Amino acid sequence: MNVMKCELCGSSDVLKERDLYRCQHCRTQYTTEEVKQLITVRIETSESKQGYLSLAENALSEGSGEEAYEYANKALEFSADSSSALILKMKALETMGTIRDPRIAEVISCGKYAVGCASDDEKQSVTDEVYAYFLVRAFGLISLATAQVNDTKQVNKLFEAYSAVNIFSAASNTEKDDAEALARYINLTTAALALIAEVPDDAIKENLSLEGWIALAIEKLSQFFLALDMRLKIYGTKAADEALEERTRQLTALIYLLSDEKKIELLKKHQSEQSAKWREKGLCRNCGGKLSRLSDQCKECGKQN
Questions:
Q1: Distance from the CA of 288 to the CA of which of 14, 106, 169, 303 falls in 20 to 30 A?
Q2: How are the residues of the chain apportioned to helix, strand and coil, as percentages rounded to the nearest 5?
Q3: φ, ψ for residue 273 (rounded to 5)?
């Protein structure tokens, strides 16, 4: 019996659909003439590393991360040091991660191994692609965390519900219930910083594109911290001194990855934007207290904003 095998994936599960034949595994279509040519012919490339790389690329472009991950692993069975397969696997992990577990350790492992396995001819292009991906993904994680923290509808409802029962314990109960969610969002920024830490300082300063992503990450991280403070304000608390010191350390470390010119520009912009946002909310940027309506002086710490 003549058996047709799909040219792309090697599957023999090919069925006729109207005037075309379609592989039920990878959805590739064939005309009647193409089917005649493929019957009883085993296409070697469909069972090679390149065949699985093509399948992984197609799956990734369609948003099928798990399929792309599996195909990339199949390609790695043919060649364990394939930089192309490792990069595809790295990118596939993005669609498989969750807020609870973005799987950043695996992403970093795949990216670093891809760079280490790259031949001399492809070393630079692979390095640039991996480092760019690390920074873009880091920015995405911080953006996600910021959006989640800014969404305070549920927290406000929770506080109102507790207040209706007991106004005196409403704040502490809301803070307790919100703690787990905040920990998840902070974990996303920690994962983002871990990705950034894998990109060498020299690579950032020598590449304007990478430096641009660092600058965006700094701005977004500043927004995250501000959103965090506004959320804590809902139930009458604020970040501990240790947490504030850690924020300063994180932002400073990122700023010092930039060139001197960009560093000065960003510091001025950051300070100006932060002050404006706090004043807009009527809050002191130093302690989070309320500002006087007649001036920008804080009623609690007395400092001018």
A1: 169
A2: 65, 5, 25
A3: -65, -40
Spell out the alpha helix ranges (H) of 79-169: 83-96, 104-117, 123-150, 153-165
Is the pTM higher than 0.70? The answer reads yes
Q: 299 Cβ partners below 8 Å, 6+ apart?
A: 289, 290, 291, 292
CB 209 within 8 A of CB 132: yes
Parts of the chain with a pLDDT under 50: 1-2, 40-46
Tokens of residue 125, six digits: 């292009």
Tell me if residue 81 falls in helix, strand or coil: coil
Alpha-carbon span 287 to 280, nearest angstrom: 15
